[in-house]
Amino acid sequence: MFVWKRLLGTLPSLAGVIVVTFLLSHALPGDPAAYFAGPAANAASIAEVRNKLGLDQSLPVQFLHYLADLAHGNLGNSLTTGQPVLTDLIQRLPASLELTMFALIFAVTVAIPMGVWAATRPGSLIDHACRATVSAAAAFPTFFVGLLLVYVFYFLLGLAPEPVGRLNEVLYSAPPHITGAYTIDSLLAGDWQVFRASLAQLILPSISLGLFALAPIARITRAAMLQALGSDFTRTARASGLPARKVLVTYAFRNALLPLSSVLGMVFSFLLGANVLIEQVYGWQGVGSYAVSAVLASDYAAVQGFVLMMAVLYILLNLLVDLLGTLIDPRVRFEA
Amino acid sequence: MSATTLARNVGHAFGQNRLTLVAVAILLLLLLCAAFGQQIAPYDPLMTNGGAKLLAPDAAHLFGTDALGRDILSRVIVAARLDLGMAISAVVLSFLGGLALGAVAGYFGGWSDRIIGRGMDTIMAFPLFVLAMGIVAALGNSVLNIIIATMIINLPFYCRFARGEVNVRREMGYVEAARMGGNRSLPVLVHHIIPNILPPMMVQASLNMGWAILNAAGLSFIGLGVRPPTPEWGIMVSEGASFIISGEWWTFVFPGAALVLAVFCFNLLGDGMRDLLDPRQRI
Amino acid sequence: MTAQLLIEDLSLVFRTRHGMVRALEDVSLSVERGEIVGVVGESGSGKSVMAYAVMGLQDPASQVLGGRIMFGGLDMLRASEAALAEMRGRELAMIFQSPRTALNPIRKVGRQIADILRQHTTSRRGDLRKHAIDALARVRIPDPARRCEAYPFELSGGMCQRVMIAMALACSPSLLIADEPTTGLDVTTQAVIMDLIREMSRDARMSTLLITHDLGLAGEYCDRIAVMHAGHVVEVAPIEELLSRPAHPYTRQLLAATPTSRSTVEELVSIPGQLPDLRRELPACRFSERCERHVGTCDERPLPWTKLSPTHMVRCRVPL
To answer: Facing residues of C312 across strands?
Structure first.
């Protein structure tokens, strides 16, 4: 079936990602064993690690071991937590996903209407103002935006809760774990207070993260809408007397979605990366902050596990966007 | 395009777009800070002063002082060298690398195109900032490795662009003429095609500079590469972050603003250059 | 006066960065009930601009300087957008060239027809698909029920044009404007499409305004022809009269330039000169610079209509 074909299409990327992460951890100048053993190791423990991880064997053999380990879900152990890296990552992933999801929802909910509106009034003052603000927003480093928002809304205005992460553990306790997302889990548990608290904690970080994504989304939406509104089929729709609303939504906007889905790939790349920065600013207990402490502590296995997981997630997200694109554009289905 | 026509076009475009001129002026100012920071700065950026900790901006310290009593204005000025230096180095390297790889792939096609394409696709399969983190973690925590990591993640951008441009020009008349004139492939590529694609690539480079700055600053914000007490905008923001909740905003706002200024001006410059070269491309 | 459509002294300009383009000047034309009127001219003569003006779909950068367009008791130039939208698709329909791009590429053809039916008729939701299939059947599309579920890219150019015609005729309009409906189609399909249009017009006693640059095509299918040049209507006459006794020098040159099946390459003539630049001040007769019969009075305003017969009018001081 068509979906299978698309899935198979991701295999080269997956292969490339696995090879690169292997090379990054096993094929670099210096002694990989020393990296895995940690900065506090001595010669004896390094030799032990080298033996245990099979790092004294040839590179192709090591690669086969690496593949076998991956197949068993073995990403090594973290030096700092002592736990298997995979366990750490899975434990922390829902926090990052929840944050990224909200950021995406924010970016899309603001940017798409803005782009559509700007396209229906090209050259107007509002159009220029939107483009200017969007350009300016794109120049702000995400971590700086995060800090500014905390300063203004928490310190100055007192509107936002203290940026201590997902939930103020002093006042609230986390809901029973079902999905890992506090907002969903608290709703499922019927705990309205925790839901509101976790939502409140999410607002500022989501906005900080999503702000940078506003620019490309709004820009592409505007360009795509302008093109759709000026196209032959829109003219036909108008000539047929269809109401303005229908022309805008069913004819123009749906066609504008096609280029939009291609820019989403770039947006996801940014979101998954900038996630790390925002988690630092807000003390978010997700995979991003885990990775940062791992890098600083030279916790090698943890960092590479993080990189691998993020890459796989990115590939899957792109696949999802791709499949959604085929729902919108029937022409793609027939190309197969 | 002859030199006089180009000069006239540049003058015309910049005259039309005063914003671009302002951006160029600010960038020159920043480059000045990068080059002569130590001389311009009012204080020694590394000199600590226990008695002047966390002073709000005033006449003596325009940007205030930080937790160790160092003058923030001086640190911001001197930091320009590292921030701009890292970004410019990375962009130059990935520009040259991407140009070479892309030109080869676009011109010769075949298996060189496939291999290079596969390589670039593999880089692009990662969320780029994450890959940069992984590379720095693997190579070691230093400024050089930040530059290398930023260069690597930027490579596909230039490579694809160069490949596309070379592909388009490969079939054009003047290339055919050069080939028929008896020139072998590589000289044709180097002497005829590459000079032609340099202008649009320069536009891409200036649009890309802002992104390179943000990437490098992001890496240093999380503690990679640059170590205290080295002044660098990203790490200064990170150091100032702990003081938000006590209200000493100047410790993070000014270095952050410097970042915004630099990125914004490079973006404006890029837009201005794109308008100059091909106004039709403007969305 | 029982004219279905009456265009009177329409003048229209475009405001562009490079100046004001005087796209139409004092254009007058009428279409009677049930007749097929062809509008013929080179590209840039203003044929399509006039058509869009009738539909009320002028470019936002354009400005009407004067004149009126009477249709269904409404002045299409001064009516409200709501009133115009009410007319479009229902009383007044238009089909375009390049039919495949003129259809929504990601929407099934049947749904597009249904959209129009839903807007202008009181059909129930459940009946819409059936009516759409009927519309397709009326334009002789084979297997209409299956074609209803097709996307435009799955259909040939000729089929797409039939779909457009089906869409246009779905609500039985009293006027159909066909803007170069056969350009881009192969010759056999051209004939088929034109035959279809003519048959539909006759059956429904629908008036048709056929816009084309192909004088041969117009000659075969139209009752009357209006010749346009550089934003002016220069001659209007019944088809036989126009072809045998053209009165305007431009019309004569146009006829001479139209290759017939018997002409040879050596015999091909072209009209000297080019279309005048519509951005500058122009003389009263815009053909005068290319005309061999040009005399001094040709540049004097106003340029009058000469009535050679009750049905044959020409705008020239020195008609043939």
So the answer is: C309
- A71-75: long-range contacts, CB 8 A cutoff, minimum separation 24: A75/A301, A75/A304, A75/A305, A75/A308
Tally of CB atoms within 10 A around B169: 19
Q: Quote ipTM for the complex.
A: 0.90
Contact at 8 Å (CB) between A189 and A175?
Answer: yes
Report the b/e string of C220-258 with b at 16+ CB within 10 A.
ebbbbbbbbbbbbbbbbbebebbbeebbbbbbbbbbeeb
Task: Please tell me which of the candidates B222, B256, B283 has its beta carbon nearest to residue A276.
Answer: B222
How close is the nearest chain B Cα to the Cα of A17, in Å?
6
Determine the distance in angstroms separating the CA of A239 from the nearest CA of chain C, rounded to an integer. 6
**C38 membership: H or E segment, kind and range:** strand C36-40
Q: How many whole angstroms separate alpha carbon A41 and alpha carbon A85?
A: 19
Searching chain A, which residue's CA lies closest to the CA of residue C108?
A330
| Structure tokens, B111 | 């298996």
Mutation target vs A (from C86, C109, C115; most A CBs, 10 A cutoff): C115
Closest residue in chain C to residue A232, using alpha carbons only: C102
Round to the nearest angstrom and report the end-to-end CA distance of chain C: 29
Cα C221 to Cα B33: distance, rounded to the nearest angstrom? 77
What is the pTM for the complete model shown? 0.85
Distance from CA of A238 to the nearest CA of C (A): 8
Q: What is the DSSP letter of C266?
A: G
CA distance A264 to A278: 20
Q: What is the DSSP letter of B189?
A: I
- List, for residues B212-248, the tens digit of each pLDDT value: 999 999 999 999 988 888 999 999 999 999 888 888 8
Angle at B178 between CA B172 and CA B182, to 5 degrees: 140
Helices (DSSP H) in chain B: which residue ranges?
Answer: 3-16, 18-40, 72-108, 110-124, 128-139, 143-170, 173-180, 185-188, 194-221, 233-241, 250-277
Find chain B residues with C-beta within 8 A of A158's C-beta.
none
B122, B131, B210 member nearest A307 (Cβ): B131
**Residue indicated by tokens 């969305």:** B283
Report the side by side order of strands in the sheet with C224-229: C92-95, C175-179, C207-212, C36-40, C224-229, C232-238, C312-314, C306-309
Centroid of chain to Cα B131? 18
Using a threshold of 3 CB pairs under 8 A, tell whether chains B and A touch: yes
CA distance A66 to A79: 19
With contact defined as beta carbons under 8 Å apart, do A22 and A66 qualify?
yes
Instruction: State which amino acid sits at residue C5.
Output: L
C145–A contact, CB cutoff 8 A: no
d(CA B68, CA C159): 79
Residue B192 makes CB contacts below 8 A (sequence gap 6+) with: B174, B175, B178
Which residues of chain C have a CB within 8 Å of the CB of A238? 57, 88
**pLDDT tens, residue by residue, B31-79:** 999 999 888 888 888 888 888 888 888 888 888 888 888 999 999 999 9
Please check whether residue C102 touches A, CB under 8 A: yes
Do the chains contact at B223 and A296, CB–CB below 8 Å?
yes
Cβ within 8 Å of residue B22, ≥6 positions away:
B268
